[in-house]
Amino acid sequence: MSATPQGTAVEAPAGGAAAPGGGANGSTPVVTVRVPKRSVRSELRAIKVVWRRELIRFRNDRMRIVTSLVQPLLFLFVLGSGLQQLSAASTHGVDLKTFIYPGVLCISVMFTAMFSAASIVWDREFGFLREMMVAPVRRSSIVIGKCFGGATVASLQGVILILLAPTVHVPYSVTLVLGIFFLQLLLAFSITAFGVMAAARVKQMQSFMGLMQLVVMPMFFISGALFPVANLPGWLAVLNRLDPLTYAVSPMRSLVFSHLDLSKAAEQTLNPGITWFGWEVPVALEIFTVLALGLLMLGIAIWEFNAGE
Amino acid sequence: MSTAISVKDLRKSFGDFEAVRGVSFEVATGEVFGFLGPNGAGKTTTINMLCTLARPTSGAASVAGFDVVDARDDVRRHIGLVFQDPTLDGYLTAEQNLRLHAELYGVERALVAPRMQQVLEMVGLWERRATQVLTFSGGMRRRLEIARGLMHSPRVLFLDEPTIGLDPQTRNSIWGYIRQLQQSEEITIFMTTHYMDEAEFCGRIAIMDHGEIVALDTPEALKEEVGADRIRLETDDDEATIAAIRERFELEAGVSEGAVSFAVPGGEEFVPRLFAELGVPIRAVSVSRPTLDDVFMNHTGTTIRDAEESDGGAKAKNRFAAQMMGGGARR
């Protein structure tokens, strides 16, 4: 693969430099451009540029779209179908796939968002971060653009899973689709912010991936994406309430279940809601928790990038 | 003539280590100014301070008329940078890389396309603009970086070791662009290099060693200043030879790159005397006109290569390893 492009590459400069280069300057006038003073507009533009780059890269990287879908699909269809035989009695007739669908919606964006955040480590390793850092814009704009980009890419990925809703007995509806999309966007934003915050400190791809394994997998398992969060053993209940992902899975499940025709018993068992010392946490507060954590981590990430280098 | 870069007693310390120990110089608009010195001499640290990437510990510097500490954003608007290590996004095409850069700098939309065509044609990559950068060779990438650094018509272009690791042909074409730029645009070029032969292309050069500027002038003036020719001797006993040279001719010789070498005016006339009077067997002798190497030696007492082997070697190796890893992972 490397032989052909390299071969042509070496020949190109000599001819290119001598002929068209010299000729172009002799005949065509020099185009001179101006860089405007830094302003709010240039910051917004910088956010947009960084955001768009994430989208372009996502589009170019088809492999990533496919690979990051594998894990959620395994959980949904393999685990969901396989464990169905064991759980049929306790789910009150609800398909296990339907039950874990909201959880899978969350983890799919989580993995994609983490990958997006990882690209900042990648950018540092390959120097591109430096190109952005010397531009006449604030570093905060770059960090914000990165988080928005990661959130958008992850949500686009999530759309594929939204399309799968009927296969797990969840009917389409406008409020359902928009609701899921919004929740995924929010979760993806917070996860990307978390990843970018970590990436400010971790300078190597291997360490970053290791850290993600260390944090993401437990977060996912503890969150209740695969099980109802009532009547857990004490230690697990505590961990579950501390896990930020819990507060994304719970509203997602409430949203999906509200579009299903479930018996009271099934609803009670499968979607008991989160309680803090016996107090039932309202869905709005759960959503706010995810948002607040995301903004907090974004703030820390900005602070870290401003302080560094 | 106006001043593009003005530096006064600039210093930078990293903990106890003083990387730059008070450098002062001025670069006129339109000049090609070179920083020459071994790895670890403080060239990159100086460039980083001028580009607002590092804060000076003390001293002052202004670039394109703006202070590098107080007016960082204004400095950044007016400079172009080509780093030692690649900073392109390999997953994007050449065109996408340049467009992204232009937008990040806020170049007026209507001018992006014509400017891009101009800079890409200059570096001979216009035909390859739709190709993903990761398929580019090292030389093409460096040329693309130069094109990108010029996208926003900077007043000062900083080139940090622009030709390091490139084949001679590409090095020549990069020097071609630099000369061409000088004629076509009002641009000042500030570059670092540790290739002696390249420094000759610069209008003026500052020789840097251990964080200080030890000499600053045009290459011709610097070489003239040395005055003497350089004689290199290969002998069986270097120690005895050095002692003999000191005793018979009252000249100071040293060992560098495996040969005894010393400077003497009128070298060619000196060789017969050397053979007649030295009294130590000589295996080979060479006489050379002063080069920038001798200028460097004259001011620092070592050749640039020896200086790198003694204290810059480790750093250079690290960088090489990093590039190897980067290159491997990309493919």
SSE succession of chain B: EEEHEEHEHHHEHEHEEHEHEEHEHH
Q: What is the H level of CATH, i.e. the homologous superfamily of the largest domain in chain B?
A: P-loop containing nucleotide triphosphate hydrolases
Q: State mean pLDDT of chain B (0 to 100 scale).
A: 84
Distance between termini of chain B? 48 Å
How big is the Rg of chain A?
24 Å
Q: How much helicity do the residues of chain A have?
A: over 70%
CATH topology of the largest domain in chain B: Rossmann fold
pLDDT average of chain A, as an integer?
A: 83
Query: Segments of chain A where pLDDT lies below 50 for 5+ residues?
Result: 1-27
Q: Walk across the major sheet of chain A and give the strand order.
A: 1-2
Reading off the top of the CATH hierarchy, the class of the largest domain in chain B is best stated as: Alpha Beta
Biggest beta sheet attributes of chain B: 6 strands, mixed
Give the strand line-up of the largest sheet of chain B: 6-7-8-3-9-10
Cα-atom radius of gyration of chain B:
23 Å
Q: How many separate structural domains of chain A?
A: 1
Report the principal-axis shape of chain A. elongated
End-to-end distance of chain A: 37 Å
Order of helices and strands of chain A: HHHHHHHHHHHEEH
Short descriptors:
heterodimer, A: 309 residues, mainly alpha, two-stranded antiparallel ribbon, elongated, disordered N terminus, B: 331 residues, alpha/beta, Rossmann fold, Alpha-Beta Plaits, six-stranded mixed sheet, four-stranded antiparallel sheet, 12 helices, disordered C terminus
